[in-house]
Design a protein that fits this description.
Helix content is 60%, strand content 14%. The chain contains 8 helices and 6 strands. The strands form 2 sheets. Strands 2-3-1-4 form a 4-stranded antiparallel beta sheet. The radius of gyration is 25 Å and the shape is elongated.
């Protein structure tokens, strides 16, 4: 018996992890397969005289997911993780800087009520009903760099799943759409309670 640990990519929900687990467990010679969604990993125990690691990798790929080699703790994997963390940190810092500008414009009315002095030129540009378009457009322009910096998250949401059911895309895709709509609706409800 041989035990190995793989990195599985492309899983977004528990249905994805169970699909991978079923695909690998159905292989002849597979003793035990366990997929963990949170760590994107899969641990397998199999008879290496019947089954090879390439067969396991092919089963995961045929199920519609990506797979890394069995040596997930290699130096190249650690280097890749560190570079991803660095990129995420840069995105966070730059997004926060733009967010400060955005909040200073959008919340300037509330900041002024605390007694913090707001320059007159700023009030002339952004305050008042006659400047509503300028106020909204300035916020839109500041949000654009934040959206661009974090575009990776939007690309992941729009990426179609590699397998389809008879109803089109999988239930995971529908769940994501419903989840986004639900959050928009709850945000609208909150806005309604704030304006009362």
């Amino acid at each position: 018996m041989k035990k190995e640990k793989y990195t599985v990519t492309g899983m977004t929900c528990s249905a994805c992890s169970s699909r991978v687990e079923k695909a690998v467990s159905s292989l002849k010679g597979m003793e035990k397969a366990s997929v963990n969604l949170l760590t994107n990993s899969m641990q397998v125990e199999y008879d290496d005289s019947i089954l090879s690691s390439s067969d396991i990798e092919n089963a995961v790929i045929n199920a519609g997911y990506g797979i890394g080699g069995s040596d997930a703790t290699s130096s190249s994997a650690k280097t890749k993780k560190n570079s991803e963390k660095d990129e995420m940190l840069h995105r966070l810092v730059y997004s926060f800087v733009f967010l400060l500008f955005l909040m200073s414009i959008s919340m300037s009315h509330m900041i002024a009520k605390t007694g913090f002095p707001i320059p007159q030129w700023f009030q002339n540009i952004f305050w008042g009903n006659e400047n509503a378009i300028t106020f909204a457009f300035a916020q839109f322009l500041i949000v654009l760099p934040i959206l661009y910096l974090n575009r990776i998250y939007y690309k992941r949401l729009q990426k179609p799943f590699p397998f389809k059911s008879k109803y089109g895309y999988t239930y995971c895709r529908w769940f994501k759409c419903i989840n986004v709509l639900w959050h928009i609706r709850s945000f609208q409800n909150e806005l309604g309670t704030w304006s009362r």
